[in-house]
Design goal:
Layout lengths: L4 E7 L7 E7 L6 E4 H7 L3 E8 L5 E13 L2 E10 L6 E2 L1 H6 L2 E4 L4 E4 L14
Parallel strand pairs: 2-7, 3-6
Antiparallel strand pairs: 1-2, 1-5, 4-5, 5-6, 8-9
Amino acid sequence: MSTFTVPIGLAASESGPFEEMDALVDTGAFYGWIPRPTLERLGITPTGVRKFTLATGEDVDEQIGYAWIRLQDQAGPTIVVFAPAGSEPLLGAYTLEGFALAADPVNERLVPMPKLRASRLTRFTS
């Protein structure tokens, strides 16, 4: 499977300022992983801790927080992991699905999802 990067912008709030960077698209990761120093510089603060299993099989506890992300022509809130300093920024499935985007690894780009899954509820009348 190929990997590729896409340009993103990150900020602590909707009004920015956004810091531009390239992020590796990793649909096998749930959240995006951004180096801690970048998140701290932007004023993004941890809001909790989650347990993750790394590709090596190792379980780790990492802090998470909320950030605003700009991706293609959209901007919105997402959850990010405070990754160790020196880590490559990574864009995970949570953000991609939130923006209704899918990875096209052949052409190394993000594409709109053609359909979104939904559950139709039946309404009962009395």
